[in-house]
Amino acid sequence: MTTTTSASNSFGFPASTTPASDKIATGVSTSENKDMFTKLLVAQIRNQDPLAPSDPSQFVNQLSQLSQTEALQQLAQTTSASASVLQSLQVLAMGAQVGSEVSIQTSRVRLGDDKISGNVQLTGANSATKLILTGVDGQQHHISLPPHGAGALPFTIDPAALGLAPGNYSISAEASDGTKPAVEVTGRLDSVRMSAAGGILLQVAGIGEVDPSSVTGFNGKASALASLEH
């Protein structure tokens, strides 16, 4: 008796065809994958050797693998869509704050003609704290701050009074207890944009571009703050 067989891979698929999982990876729709898999399964059953038929459990395993792959694909699509929606909401929320004063935890500042204010977040009472500004030339400039208890120690940097040239500086703080507390700088949120990598970047006056995770507070519009002070 003569039987007709075709070359097949370890799963019993014809060697010249592409498995369903590969098609999914290349972007073929779920319905197309189902149709293709059904045709391959029928072809496999028709072309099996009658004297050595395939184990039925293989067909069940193949169907199970297809269902699992489809479920993973749908989960990935749902997750991607949810992330996109969340990011759009973040951009809208941040965009509504443009023009507001924000507090940024930072290790760098951009000095110009205007004064810059902020806070040193002390973890305990200190008899003396100093700000350290380091220019691109490596020169350090120390600013002494008064004794203060634990919490936010305010400061103001006046570039003109301190003789600091415009430019970028790194900023840090050292407390008398030997700790290096975090430095927060207050600046105007000028713009919100999407980066090439798909993240969100904030343009803050006196600092430059920062990640939203570095924002420690939204302080309101500058005009509103001024009216409240008066």
Walk me through what this model shows.
The chain is an alpha+beta fold. 33% of the residues lie in helices and 32% in strands. Strands 1, 3, 6, 8, 9, 10 and 11 form a 7-stranded antiparallel beta sheet that branches. A 4-stranded antiparallel beta sheet has the order 2-7-4-5, with no helix packed on it. The longest helix has 40 residues, at 56-95. Residues 1-27 and 224-230 have low confidence and may be disordered.
Counted up, domains total: 2
Specify the biggest β-sheet. Answer: 7 strands, antiparallel
Large-scale geometry: elongated
Gyration radius, rounded: 32 Å
CATH class label of the largest domain = Mainly Beta
Task: Fill in the keyword field for this structure.
disordered C terminus; 2 domains; 33% helix; 5 helices; single chain; 4-stranded antiparallel β-sheet; 230 residues; alpha+beta; Immunoglobulin-like; 7-stranded antiparallel β-sheet; elongated
Summary, kept brief:
The protein has 230 residues and is an alpha+beta fold.
Give the SSE layout:
Elements lengths: L19 H6 L4 H17 L9 H40 L4 E6 L2 E4 L4 E7 L6 E7 L4 E6 L5 E7 L1 H4 L4 E9 L6 E13 L5 E5 L3 E3 L4 E7 H8 L1
Antiparallel strand pairs: 1-8, 1-11, 2-7, 3-6, 3-8, 4-5, 4-7, 8-9, 9-10
